[in-house]
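Lab notebook, page 48
Experiment: co-folding of the full assembly
Goal: obtain a model of how the components sit together before planning crosslinking
Operator: M.T.
Materials (sequences as entered):
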Amino acid sequence: MRALRAASLRHLLRHPAQLALALVGLALGVGTIVAVDIATASARRAFELSLQAVNGAATHQIVGGPRGIDEQLYARLRSAPHPPGEPRAQLAPVVAGYVTVGERVMQLLGVDPPASAELDGAAASAAPAFALHGAEEAREWLTEPGTVVMSASSARELGIAADGRFELAVGGVRHPARLIARLEDAGAGFDALLLTDIAQAQEWLGTVGRLSRIDVRVPAGAAGTALLARLAAQLPADLALHATRAEARETFAMTDAFTTNLKAMSLLALLVGTLLIYGAVSFAVLQRRSIIAVLRALGATRGEVLAMLLSEAAVLGIAGAVCGVLLGLAIGRGLVGLVAQTINDLYFVVAVSEVSVPASVLVKALCAGLATALVAALLPALEVAGSSPQLGLARSVLERRALQVARRLVIVSVLLALGALLTIAGSSRSLLAGFVALFMLLLSVAALTPAALRALAGAAAAIAARFSPVARLACADIAASLSRTGVAIAALGMALTAMIGVAIMVESFRESLREWLIQSLRADVYVSAPGVAESLERRLDPQVIRALLQVPGVRAHSEGRRVTVTSSAGALDLNAVHLAAESYAGYRFTQGEAAHAWPQFARGAILISEPLAWRLSLAPGGRLTLITASGPRAFTVAGVYREYGNDRGEVLMDLEAYRQWWHDEGIAALGIYLAPGIPAAQAVRELRSAARGRQALLIRSNADIRALSMRIFERTFVITRVLYWLAAGVAAVGLVSALLAWELERARELALLRTLGLTRAAIALLVVGQTAFMGVAAFLAAIPAGLCTALVLTDVINRRAFGWQIGLHLAPAQFGNALWLAFAAALAAGAYPAWRSARAPLASGLREE
Amino acid sequence: MLEIRQLSRSFREGARVHTVLQEASAQIAGGEIVAIMGRSGSGKSTLLNLISGIDRADGGTVHIDGREVTSLAEPARTLFRRAHIGFVYQFFNLIPTLDVAENVRLVLELNGVHGAPARARSLAVLEAVGLGARAHSAVEELSGGEQQRVAIARALVHRPRLLLADEPTGNLDDETAREVLPALLSLVREHGATLVIVTHDEQLAASAGRVLELREGRLHERRAPHPAAAR
Amino acid sequence: MPGAGAHRAAVAVWAGALAGALGWATAAAAPPATGRVLPGTAPGAGFAQALESRPFVFPRDHGPHPQYRQEWWYVTGNLDAASGERFGFELTFFRFALAPPAAAGPAATAGADMPGAPGATPGETSAWRTREMYMAHFAITDVARRRFRFAQKLSRAALGLAGAQAPPLRVWIDDWSLAGIEPAPTPAALAPWTLHAAQDGYEIELTLEPLTAPVPNGAAGLSRKSAEPSAANYYYSVPRLKVRGRLLRDDRPLEVHGLAWLDREWGSGGLAAEQAGWDWFALQLSDGGALMFYALRERDGRRDPWSAGTWIAPTGEARPLANADVAIAVTDSWRNAQGVRYPAAWRIEVPALALSLAVRPVLPDQELKTTPHYWEGAVDAGGERSGESVSGRGYVELVGYAPER
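Observation: model returned without errors.
Model output:
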């Protein structure tokens, strides 16, 4: 059917603007998905590589509490006689922590090379590519202080001198170090990894006598299982043995809620894209209604017409998807940095140096593009191919049909909204259900928009009729243009809704965070050791603490220690505190009563933060089992408090109780209360000079911390913002394309108005006024819908993802972006047709059919 | 060849039922040229749509070459139409994105004739209507008369047994109509096809062998078959 | 090798260490192959040197001599099972110091010059700090099944993971050990020892009972290896130890008995640049005599004049053998998969003792594929001494053989 194909192809090429805009819409939608996939896949890959680099061939790990494992246990396990004839587990001790080199945080890994070699199973003769020159480096490694090994690329990045000498800092204490070997071709997993001897690592990290973990390799199969069972039986109660894979899964699972949110945002962009494709394709189909009727009259079957239209859509879909993939690769590169930044801010240290593009992402994107275009084309194609091939259906008939569709869509909209409500009501914890409800809500808005537009335009026409017939005409025209503009307006309405909803959610979250920070940061100055979140080496030197507390003006202080402990529900963050009297007011209980909770707390009960309570379904009176240094112990939950600093949740425990259960005397942070009248800035200066020369500490005023927290908060929402601008961009493009098509089609009618005596300026005003009206209509429809969306986002999505309860905060500024976007898109759409119709010679405008 | 038996068709417009055809009947022999006349809205186009199977009758039958078209299912009607019936419209209805030759060839391709045979055949028909030289012109470069000659070529290129023409000269000035009409009639005669023309044009009707008038939903013989015209 | 893991990277760092630790003990690998000597520092700088002969005092000298750079305890033996099956075994412990002991004590290198930050708690010293590594090789020759199996352990001398002490003697890595029985049932020099090691498929649990007092080799225990005076070790052997015990093969215990040989050396020197390796023979004869001889080889293949040995008569009387005293002809050879050709049969003539022996390995492949590779295996000997027919068993060590070009 070459002629048929030629007709279809030439039609597309004859409307390049329409084609281009459809492609851009699809490409943006697909591109956003690809970008998000690439960014999360890259972060995940980097994480896996670094974990692989850290774990190597280990199949399991023995892990302990916050203070790790007594090294004597390792010696005992190694020399323990073992039943003859049974395979042996390979064991290798690891001391891990974080150090900073310049500005960069690196993971320090202390290993015992012979044990590591044994665990790795590498015969000594199979020296890897980056083997050293011989005994000399080994001698240096073992006997010279401060010797380290890192990847050649890291060394280059850090700009380490040829003699290998540099400085690193552990918890603010600086140490000289020397690079004795650079690992060439080490791979991305070695980025941000510093290898040193286990003795050196213990000394730097201040964990002499302790191991972070013992890596274990057992053979696969029954022998390995038996071996593990025997090994586990030899472990004291506070240690656990688990598979390295499980650890990797669990660690990365921390980011689940975050990545799910990202994916949902990218899906939104594609959804908007789908509606646009639908608009473009149905327009392209309707435009050819008469041609299709001729074809049918000449004897082309329904199937042939359908095939023609769908293959057109398929070509469009593939082209759009290919563009989208290319676009996504470009956006993805930018997004990787943002995603990695967020993960580093919120979860764990990961250096993403490579953008990884899994083939599955590309396949998925191509399929999504193709499917989107086909689904979008299917409805109009079926409608046209199926209708009886009578020629010359009047526009009025088409509009009547569009109106019927719009009415039917109102019902669909109501059903979708009901569905959203039922989905929320019917599920209490499922995040997926939350997103399903959210998307139903957005689609409901999309379905409602055309009817809303018509109603608004009709009302406007009735009012305008009193002033001028031209104004009436303009409004009536809008009401009668649904077949052309309905879909684009729906897409815009949906994008604006999402935009408003997200803006309100972010603002509400921001306000809640701000309030919480003001309320919970009670002390005037905060002192902490620099380093990574819950790492053990973040510890204040006791002498430094004494010096700090002797600074004049220090009136009272709180002490805190943050560690990771193992619980029946996996690893948890534990915040052990000794609170100054003023600090108690910093905790606001969402469950439980302060009057009862604090006395219980003082007696060793725990408090848990809101997200943890949500995640573990725990309430006051419940019990949480933590693995203490003397084995598992169930702690009573005395209360649940508000906390926005940690989306995984945390356990609050009295410092004395913590010391008793974990034998860890370290202090990681101080909250200092100043005597009245002493300015914080002055105190910060004096505290800094007290610590100078002993330990580089983070000493910051209350206000600084607040500002820093807000900065991190803003940073984590950058991606969200980027994504919703992408979705909005897709919608804007769609609106421009639809309105453009509509206006160009009306050239004749506008020409008629000119002959009737309307000036060029009036024509231009008319056109721009109409498109602006549509933009505003979409915006107005989006306001209530945006509010509903914000409610779903804060009360359902956020709650289910993180357990936070956030109060809704409304501010006019939240609607500003959406209004601006609606106006800009509408004006952009109106400008060119306005210019064109105002300029067009009258004769040609009228002569056209 | 064409037998119309008690054909009925009515349309519902809101609450009102508008009967267009009411038990219209006619018999047309092979090779006849028949003009159907009637006032605007008398149902002439509806009749053509029913004959060609584009529309379905409420009652009655249409037989073409002894085959009952009205009882065929939609896909079969489409296939029958594309093989056996040609169409000429008042507004030409050429496909603007195809050139002259492609418009003609499209019908052949729909009937499974492709490549060189299709090209040769469509060129031959275009030559016959005097447009061989314009084969690769864009449709919109042609005058109205030329466009209608292309439409005639397209209608006959696959040698249909029946040609239906709906006001073929309705959109042409008299002079042009006088150029187009002979082309149509001579080609129809050359092919031995049966031609049914719906028209207001008395002059056109005069060149038909027989004239039927559609009045109040029925077909009336207005003039006996003219032996010469029938030939 | 992306993603290979930190443990693997550590292996890379330590490929060098293994070669170094073995450097003197088993091969001449250290100087030429990996050849890096700090400018102005002799290999043994800072260590005590074996320059003069000295009397050995037991049981103290069974134990470690940390002021010397390297040291080893080398037990080889031939065993017979009650079933009639025959085995050879080798269990060797090497001590290798990476740095000389500091004046202030072993940990001082690490702890004292740790540059802790000003004001930080004066650096606690990690128990993992050490300057000494221990390495052990355990090989079994299962003659009946024609199997040769070996395993290696490497560990730092820290946290009790590996080490040596005396009295009573104990040398160990993990659960591999050579240890004196406490309390000693017999006078110090003849006190029995136990020996334990395990690898996949084989485990030994043996008691060694010295049948003779330790025999000093070389010049009253000082064994010089080249013209360079520091290239010398203190060296004694216990040529006959009665072995009893248990060998587990694939979890099935076998009662075994036989004869073992203990070699002990310590020193701080290395081979000379022109020396390629050595062939070491330790043979226990049916008439009660025993022969030890090491033939040092030069790079051009010639026998080095510093080669030497000891003859221990059935009476227990020791007689040093100089290079010229012993003629060794290679009568067969064996080539491994990598193209290294090892001698595989010898005729040894000691005219001064009227001793003529044909020596042949019980299996051709008894090569330890460690870094570097060496061949150490059980052998049979047969021939004549003073006209009388003698037979014997023993061990041969072949070090420093390179692939043929």
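Interpretation: The longest helix of chain A spans residues 302-346.
Next step: discuss with group before ordering constructs.
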